Amino acid sequence: MAEPDYIDGDNPELIRPQKLVNPVKTSRNHQDLHRELLLNQKRGLSPQNKPELQKVMEKRKRDQIFKQQQVEAEQKKTEFEKELQKRHQMLEEMEMENQKITEEQENKPEFLKVKGNLRKMNQEISEANNS
């Protein structure tokens, strides 16, 4: 590789290039961490934190085992337990629907509530007159 031509000249007017300082390497935290890692490596100790890939692989393995246990538990359920679970699900859905209806009624403006009450009263009066 060829040397730049400004190195050969002894011209005092030229500004000599200097290597930039890396702020990360000059920070005290980085130096302490680097020193600790070197000492641990000399002792043969591995760092306390696992590599990200190893963490992801362990998490996948745990998830896979958990899914297998769920499938096995589902297979062990009797017909009675399955039917109970279906009914419980249906009851929860009905409760959710009732809750939505009550929330909608509570959020209605006052004049709509009064209008509904008047209709009910008119129907009751008309039924009473017809009887």
The outline comes out as elongated
Mean pLDDT: 84
Helix content: over 70%
Give the uncertain stretches in residue-range form.
none
- The CA-CA distance between the termini, in Å, is 113 Å
Rounded radius of gyration (Å): 39 Å
SS element count, helices: 6
| Beta fraction | under 5%
Most strands sheet: none
Structural class: mainly alpha
Total beta-strand segments: 0
Order of helices and strands: HHHHHH
Short description:
The protein has 6 helices and no strands.
Any overview of this molecule?
The protein has a domain at 58-122. Helices cover 76% and strands 0% of the residues. The protein contains six helices and no strands. The protein has helices at 5-8, 23-26, 28-43, 52-76, 79-107, 110-130. It starts with a helix and ends with a helix. Keywords: Coiled coil. It comes from Xenopus tropicalis (Western clawed frog).
Please give the structural blueprint.
Layout: H1 5-8, H2 23-26, H3 28-43, H4 52-76, H5 79-107, H6 110-130
Characteristic key phrases:
single chain; 0% strand
